[in-house]
Amino acid sequence: MSPRLPEFLAQVFPVARFAVTPYLPFGGVTFLYGKTRLGKSPLTWEMGRCVASGESFLGIYPVVKGRVLYCDLDTPPALVHARLSLVESPPEDFFIEFPGVRNILHEPTQAYFRRLKDEIQPILVILNTLRKLYGGDEKDASLPSRIYATLMAIFAPAAILVVHHDKKSAGNPDDQSDPDEAFSGHMAWLNDCQVGLHLMRHGGPVPGLLRLIHAKSQVSAEEPPRVLQLAADGTHLIDYRAEQARQVILACQSLPETMTQTERVKVVASLLKVSESTVWVILSRLPKPLTSV
What we know:
Strand order of the largest sheet: 5-4-6-7-3-8-9-10-11
Number of strands: 11
CATH topology of the largest domain: Rossmann fold
Number of domains: 2
CATH class of the largest domain: Alpha Beta
CATH superfamily of the largest domain: P-loop containing nucleotide triphosphate hydrolases
């Protein structure tokens, strides 16, 4: 017999756990999408590196340390090698595989991934990109749930991150569609996952900034957007506001102690080409000895 509502509410359910809180839940699928060559691969490399090393993601989000299986189905090994060779102290628990184009709905492919899972025992599996992982029409509404269920059955209880591309822009300035629904294919790719992440250009006066949007979550409150900066080497990704705060602190510390706080703010804002209000906000969060001059 189905439980009455009071009986249902009296039940205790396990709290969701994450490889990277709150983006990568164990036992679920995170769907990351964005335009081609925008910075999705560096973002996934950094997530994987942080889990494999136990280092917090972006210096903000806690991780569970463990083995990572990174499957690159989209890029030739030589190109990935050239970029990942820039990573300092690559963690031992980061495993990378180049499966080539596979169809996850076919038994030979499932057996291949089960062998990888048994050999490595990853707590995080990253699949880049999703389109190379199946055949058929990506607009088929039944396809996402079938693929997600297959991945979860193979890799449970690991967290699974799949990477997908935005659809090509039509260049219509009057397009009023939701940018967080801009990925290629059926809406079920987002509807049927546990967490959706959208990486897009940030815009504004500083070139090269990206915005990571927590577009959907079934397992936590949605995080505010994070502004990220892709380094010139095309490999390293940092939290822009954290880097901006570091620059403000260093600039303030380089100024004479005789300067007033207002003078410091004006000079630092001019040097870094940011607003004075931005400098004030950053300084207000620092220990008093630095801000009381």
